[in-house]
C-alpha cells in the first residue's frame, strides 16, 4: 500500500430522518499515517468510523478503503482492525488468555499474540488477570484485539477516554509503534490536546461538519473552535 491513500472518501454524509449527523466530510489517509479525528461529544466521530467499517450505511459519499469501494466493506474488512466499543473481556482470565479467546473467535493465528502483546506494551503483564489491569491497560488490550489479524488500517474510537495522563502517554507510544510498522491509524478523541503530539494530521469536526483538515503545525491557533477543543475536557 506504499504511496497509496488507504482511505480516500469524499462527501461522507449520514442523515437520520431530517437530522444530518455527518455532513459531507472528506477523508484522505495516507499509508502509514496517523490521523486524529477530533470533536466534542456528538460531533459524529463514531458515526464516521462506523461508516468506514460498514456498521452504518452512509446516506451519501463515495470513495475507497484499501483500494476497495466504500460501499462494499466485505471486500476490505479483513484488513481492518477496530476498537469502537470495547470487547467484553473475562475479568478472571489473563490478558493473554483473553487475546487467545478473541483470536480463536476471529479465526486468527495464535502465533501472532506475542507480537500483539509487545505492540500494546503488555509484555510482562500478559499473565495477570484482566481485572487487575488499569483502565489504560484495558484499553490497550482492546486495541490488541483490533491488531490480532495484522490489519493494514487500524480504527480506534476514543481509546484515551477516561484514562489518566500516564496511561494516555502509554497509548500514544503504542499508536506510534503501530504506525511505525506501516499501518495506517485513524484515532478519535474529544480533546485535541490528547492526540496533538501523536498525529500527522487532524480532522476537526463539529456537529457533523468538517472544521479543519490538515497537518497540525498548520492548524491556526486563533481559530475559535480549536480554542474550544483545547479548553474542553
Ligand atoms: P461521542 O463522543 O459522544 O461518541 P461522536 O462524535 O462519536 O460523539 P456520534 O456518536 O457519531 O458522535 O453521534 C453523532 C450524532 O448522531 C449524535 O448527536 C447522535 O445522537 C446521533 N446519532 C447516532 N446514531 C444515531 C441513530 N442511530 N439514530 C439517530 N441519531 C443518531
Oligomer: single chain
Q: Which structural class do the helices and strands define?
A: alpha/beta
**What proportion of the residues is helical, as a percent range?**
25-40%
Spatial strand order of the main sheet? 6-7-8-3-9-10
Strand content: 25-35%
What's the rounded overall pLDDT mean? 91
Gross morphology is: globular
Low-confidence regions? none
| Sheet having the most strands | 6 strands, mixed
H/E series: EEEHEEEHHHEHEHEEH
Distance from N terminus to C terminus (CA atoms, Å) equals 36 Å
Bound ligands: adenosine-5'-triphosphate
Task: Provide the fold topology.
Layout: E1 5-16, E2 19-30, E3 34-38, H1 45-52, E4 60-65, E5 68-69, E6 80-83, H2 95-106, H3 113-119, H4 135-147, E7 153-156, H5 165-180, E8 184-189, H6 192-195, E9 201-206, E10 209-215, H7 224-231
Parallel strand pairs: 3-8, 3-9, 6-7, 7-8
Antiparallel strand pairs: 1-2, 1-4, 4-5, 9-10
Bound molecules: adenosine-5'-triphosphate (ATP).
